Amino acid sequence: MSFPQHRPRRLRATPALRRLTAEVRVHPADLVLPMFVREGLTEPQPISAMPGVMHHSIDSLKAAVHEAADAGVGGVMLFGVPTTQDAVGSGAVRTDGILNVALAELNAEFGDDVVLMSDLCLDEFTDHGHCGVLDERGGVDNDATLEIYGRMGVAQAQAGARVVSPSGMMDGQVGHIRAALDDAGFADTAILAYSAKYASAFYGPFREAVQSSLQGDRRTYQMDAANRREAILETQLDIDEGADMVMVKPAMSYLDILRDVAEMSTVPVAAYQISGEYSMIEAAAANGWINREAAIDESVLGIKRAGADLILTYWATEVARRLKG
Ligand code: PBG
């Protein structure tokens, strides 16, 4: 007897059929390249814990942004690594601070052709390495930090950031930065909020990248890995405070969170494939344990499938080139 039967293998038979019936696709414009610019460099320097990623000089930064833009990458996210740090992270706010200088240089070079995003956090600029300023007892002072974030946001907007990205997980940071931007005449500067950012062991290589002096951990402000419902609360608060886009970070160990956030969010959702996710694949590939390109593409596709509209990845330029063929 014969009867109609589902045979899912029919649609897997050829590359062209698989291509036709793929449920999700990554597009170069989905990808955002995080970049590090270090004060005082004349030549780019490799970051040993992130093989293939550089500390850029201003010149090498510009060249790498050109490459990213040519590959069709959607935007770049800039981090600054200053030569000196202090208790309140004053280099973050000063116009001659490395991040603000680099933003101004990129803005002059690329204007509106590249979406310029900047990390808005104090950890690279403080000598204690925390994302905010400390109170007398050594805890991170939420509201005193907000005041500095507001000024940092304005400095970045002034320098030419189109999107500022608060990543410090202080309560009320999005609302405070929004108000500061509006008051200073930057109503058109967007906020990409790191909304559900978890305290993660996978930030390890990044800490080397920004030469973090952090002692201890960030568990009093970043989220606990056990919590799923709380990610919805954090995201809803950020949307209510005016976030134009929200983010889940890290990606790989938090794909369920990303799916939850994608389903509840009324604004675009980003996910950050962080340093440890990058370095694990690079290390396994360098040992010959994994097919590097296939693993990279699968990891990025998985993030997209989980619900990300935008994906921050250190492989943005490489993946975008591969997608263009
Ligand atoms: C904090 C910040 C972190 C990252 C970007 N901004 C994390 C942290 O040190 O807690 C992580 C990026 C990565 O690991 O790739 N300003």
What is the CATH architecture descriptor? Alpha-Beta Barrel
Q: Characterize the largest beta sheet: strand count, sense, and whether it forms a barrel.
A: 8 strands, parallel, barrel
**How big is the Rg?**
20 Å
Strand order within the widest beta sheet: 1-4-5-6-7-8-9-10
Percent strand:
15-25%
Nearest-integer average pLDDT: 96
Order of helices and strands: HEEEHEHEHEHEHHEHEHHEH
Number of helices: 11
CATH first level: which class?
Answer: Alpha Beta
Low-confidence stretches: none
Report helical residue fraction.
Answer: 25-40%
Got a strand count?
Answer: 10
The domain tally reads 1
The CATH topology is given as TIM Barrel
Which structural category do the helix and sheet elements fall into?
Answer: alpha/beta
Measure the end-to-end span: 47 Å
Which distinct ligands sit in these coordinates?
ligand PBG
Structure in words:
The protein has one domain: TIM Barrel. The protein starts with 14 loop residues before the first helix and ends with a helix. By secondary structure, the protein is an alpha/beta fold. 39% of the residues lie in helices and 15% in strands. The protein is globular, with a radius of gyration of 20 Å. The chain has helices spanning 15-20, 58-71, 98-110, 142-159, 173-183, 204-209, 229-240, 255-264, 275-286, 292-306, 316-324; strands spanning 31-38, 45-46, 54-56, 75-81, 115-120, 163-166, 190-197, 245-249, 269-272, 310-312. The structure holds ligand PBG. Ligand PBG binds at residues 119, 121, 123, 131, 167, 203, 206-207, 218, 274-275.
